[in-house]
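Can't paste images in this forum, so I'm doing it all in text. The chain is below; anyone willing to post the predicted structure tokens underneath?
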Amino acid sequence: MAPSSSLSKLKVQLKLAISRLRMVQQKDTAIAKQQRRQMAHLLEQGKEESARIRVENIIRSDITTELLEILELYCELLLARIGLLEPKECDPGLEEAIKSLIHAAPRTDVKELQQARQLLVEKYGKEFALEAMENSDGKVAERVLKKLKVEPPDPVLVDLYLKEIAKTYGVDWPKGQNKERLESDEEGGNDDPSSGHAVKSLEEPLTTEELSKAIPPRDVGPKSPVSIAPPSPSTDNLNPRVKFPGPPELKPGGKMSGVKKQTPTTQAQSDPAGPHMDDRGKKSVGGKIPDVDELARRFAALKK
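Text version of the structure:
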């Protein structure tokens, strides 16, 4: 069955909204970088109060960018499940995305997103839209509501932003922070001969057995086609880290656990004949290459 005209319009509008949301995010990110440079310049000049006030604009801009990213994901979800929008009643799996878009779209400056919201309101009715705007049933995503709150940022968050900006642009803020970092590095040891510190003695070369057990560097050999991009910082977590699970503990299977290491006694039992004596009374181990005299005696015996 061919999709209705309203559904086709919604599909086109969702694509336009996704494209526009990405452009706005890129623009806001570029502006935020310029503002961070200005904050670093203010900190370098000692204008801390001015920097604290202006950094709130950067925090608000980051929160808005994160909100647009969430709305973009919801638009992509509706576009991927466009077939579920055909019935008159809202699908339970899409109710959160639809009501979050209806609730948050009027607070953005993206016209394409607002037009997509208007099509959703026309499809599901005014009562559905009123529930979404008031969030009477609690279906609007909590993270969307959190990003839409208008309140002054936490002073701890402001300090974290300023410290991160100062660290990124090499500004000594708070005063003496870089000095403490340098002192901690000196206590940990410095191998640079020009610094006047003692150079650590060279370690002894590794043995062959140790080298065989050593793990090669990650940049040696073919690279895996699967790569993991580090998470980008957000207002909720300025220093995200990727944690990888440790290697699984390998245990011997049933077959390997039954195998015993071969000892000299077991070797003697497996070879009952043992070493035999040659003509000169010397022990000759099986598999050993005979010498020239032994070969001459064998040929003489064959001729007889």
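The chain is about 55% helix and 0% strand. The longest strand covers residues 276-277.
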